[in-house]
C-alpha cells in the first residue's frame, strides 16, 4: 500500500507535481483550474466531471487493492429501458442523464445487471469520487472490526480507541453515537461558510503527533447530551474512521482491501484520499468504479458475507440498516425516515448517499440494488435530491421489479 499524489492535495495544502500536463490513463488532461483548485465545491460542473474520476491525480491517496478473482455481475437476458421525468418533463434515460449530469447508473436485480449506462465521458473502468458514500463504507469496517474482535461493541467508549479525546466533549460518547451522529458535540457542516466547522476542520490545529482532525474535534464544545440529538457531521465520521483504524492497527484502505475488496471480488482497485496526517478519511474520499458501487450494495443485500466468510455480525447488520434515529422532517433535503449506522433509512430501502448525487440504494424485499454517480450543476441541492429520491430511483426500482 502506498500514497499517491500527482496534484495539489486538498488535505495537506502542499503543491506537488501538477497533473495538468499529463493525461490520466491516456485521457484528456486535467485543466489547470481543476489541478490547482483543490476545494471541490469551487469547481465548475465541467471540472467536477473530470476531477471526480481522477482524484488520485489530484490528491494524496491510498490504494485499496482488489484480489485475484472478481464477483461476476452477469447481464440479465432482458434489460430495462426506463422513461424518466425531470422537472416535470418526460424523457428517455440518455436525455435524463445529460440533463442531470449523471456519469453512471447501474441497476441489479437478483445480482444481475438489468441496466448499466455511462455519461459525462466516463467509462466502466473510471473510478468516481464517492463523497459521503464513504461514511457508509467506514461503518462497514466498524462492523467488520466488531466481528473480528477489535472493537468490543457499538457501546464501547470512543476514548478506548482514541485516548487523545479524553477530557474533551467526546468523553462519554460511544462508537454507536459516532456512527449515528448523536454525540451531542457541537458541529456546523455548512461547507460554504468559511467560519463553519466543516470548512475549518481541515485547515487548522497542527499538533506534533496528533491527527489534525483529532486536534480540532477535541476542542469542540458540547451542545447536547450524548444520544439526545442527531446532527450531521463529517468530522464525526472522520473521527470514527480514526477509531476503526486505531482498533485494527492498520489504515482503513488496507482493512477495506482485506475485508471486502479482495474477498468479495471487487473488479478494480479503489483509491482513498488521506488527511494531512496521512490517514484515510472516514467521512469522505473513496473513489471506485460504478460496478463496485453496486457490489457494495449487493454485499449488504447478501447479508454482509464474502464467500463463506461472515464479514459483518448478523445482528449488527440488522441494526446498521434500521432507523437508530428517526426524522420528523427532512434532513439535508433527503426523504429518508431515519438514520442507521451511517446508512440513510427509507420506508422500503436503505441508502449510502454522497454530495453531488452519489448514491447506493438497496431494496431488500425486492433484491434490487441501484447505484448512481453524478456531477450536479450545483452540489448537494435539496431540489436535486428530491428529484433523485422521488422520481428517478423509484422509476428504476419499479422497472427492475416488473422485469420479466
Describe the model.
This protein has 404 residues and is an alpha+beta fold. 28% of the residues lie in helices and 16% in strands. The protein is built from twelve helices and 17 strands. The chain has helices at residues 32-35, 45-51, 93-100, 133-147, 175-179, 197-200, 212-217, 234-248, 252-261, 290-301, 314-320, 382-402, and strands spanning 3-4, 61-64, 83-86, 89-92, 102-109, 112-118, 128-129, 270-273, 286-288, 305-306, 309-310, 325-326, 338-339, 344-345, 350-354, 358-363, 368-374. The strands form four sheets. An eight-stranded antiparallel beta sheet has the order 6-5-17-16-15-14-13-12, sandwiched between helices. A hairpin with a 3-residue loop joins strand 15 and strand 16. Helix 4 runs parallel beside helix 8. The longest helix is centred in the last third of the chain and has 21 residues, at 382-402. The N and C termini lie far apart (44 Å).
Topology:
Blueprint: E1 3-4, H1 32-35, H2 45-51, E2 61-64, E3 83-86, E4 89-92, H3 93-100, E5 102-109, E6 112-118, E7 128-129, H4 133-147, H5 175-179, H6 197-200, H7 212-217, H8 234-248, H9 252-261, E8 270-273, E9 286-288, H10 290-301, E10 305-306, E11 309-310, H11 314-320, E12 325-326, E13 338-339, E14 344-345, E15 350-354, E16 358-363, E17 368-374, H12 382-402
Antiparallel strand pairs: 1-2, 2-8, 3-4, 5-6, 5-17, 7-9, 8-9, 10-11, 12-13, 13-14, 14-15, 15-16, 16-17
Amino acid at each position: 500500500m502506498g500514497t499517491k499524489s500527482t496534484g495539489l492535495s486538498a488535505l495537506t495544502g502542499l503543491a506537488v507535481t501538477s497533473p495538468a500536463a499529463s493525461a490520466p490513463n491516456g485521457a484528456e488532461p486535467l485543466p489547470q483550474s481543476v489541478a490547482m483548485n483543490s476545494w471541490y465545491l469551487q469547481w465548475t460542473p465541467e471540472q467536477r466531471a473530470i476531477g471526480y474520476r481522477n482524484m488520485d491525480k489530484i490528491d494524496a491517496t491510498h490504494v485499496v487493492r482488489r484480489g485475484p478473482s472478481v464477483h461476476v455481475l452477469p447481464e440479465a437476458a432482458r434489460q430495462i429501458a426506463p422513461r424518466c421525468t425531470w422537472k416535470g418533463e418526460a424523457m428517455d434515460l440518455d436525455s435524463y442523464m445529460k440533463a442531470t449530469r449523471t456519469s453512471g447508473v447501474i441497476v441489479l436485480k437478483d445480482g444481475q445487471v438489468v441496466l448499466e449506462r455511462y455519461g459525462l465521458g466516463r467509462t466502466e473502468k473510471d473510478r468516481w469520487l464517492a463523497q459521503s458514500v464513504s461514511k457508509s463504507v467506514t461503518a462497514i469496517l466498524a462492523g467488520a472490526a466488531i466481528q473480528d474482535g477489535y472493537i468490543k461493541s457499538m457501546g464501547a467508549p470512543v476514548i478506548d480507541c482514541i485516548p487523545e479525546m479524553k477530557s474533551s466533549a467526546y468523553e462519554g460518547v460511544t462508537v454507536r453515537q459516532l456512527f449515528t451522529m448523536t454525540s451531542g458535540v457541537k458541529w456546523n457542516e455548512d461547507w460554504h461558510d468559511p467560519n463553519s466547522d466543516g470548512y475549518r476542520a481541515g485547515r487548522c490545529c497542527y499538533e506534533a503527533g496528533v491527527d489534525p482532525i483529532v486536534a480540532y474535534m477535541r476542542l469542540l464544545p458540547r451542545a447536547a447530551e450524548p444520544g439526545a440529538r442527531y446532527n450531521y457531521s463529517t468530522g464525526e465520521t472522520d473521527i470514527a474512521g480514526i477509531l476503526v483504524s486505531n482498533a485494527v492497527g492498520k489504515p482503513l484502505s488496507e482493512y477495506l482491501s482485506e475485508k471486502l475488496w479482495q474477498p468479495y471480488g471487487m473488479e478494480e482497485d479503489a483509491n482513498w484520499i488521506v488527511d494531512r496526517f496521512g490517514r484515510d478519511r472516514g467521512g469522505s474520499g473513496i473513489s471506485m468504479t460504478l460496478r463496485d458501487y453496486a457490489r457494495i450494495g449487493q454485499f449488504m443485500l447478501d447479508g454482509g458475507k464474502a464467500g463463506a466468510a461472515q464479514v459483518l455480525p448478523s445482528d449488527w447488520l440488522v441494526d446498521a440498516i434500521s432507523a437508530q434515529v428517526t426524522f420528523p422532517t427532512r434532513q439535508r433535503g433527503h426523504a429518508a425516515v431515519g438514520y442507521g449506522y451511517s446508512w440513510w433509512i427509507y420506508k422500503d430501502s436503505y441508502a449510502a448517499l454522497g454530495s453531488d448525487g452519489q448514491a447506493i440504494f438497496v431494496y431488500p424485499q425486492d433484491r434490487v440494488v441501484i447505484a448512481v454517480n453524478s456531477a450536479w450543476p450545483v452540489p448537494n441541492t435539496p431540489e436535486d435530491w428530491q428529484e433523485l429520491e422521488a422520481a428517478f430511483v423509484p422509476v428504476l426500482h419499479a422497472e427492475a421489479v416488473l422485469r420479466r
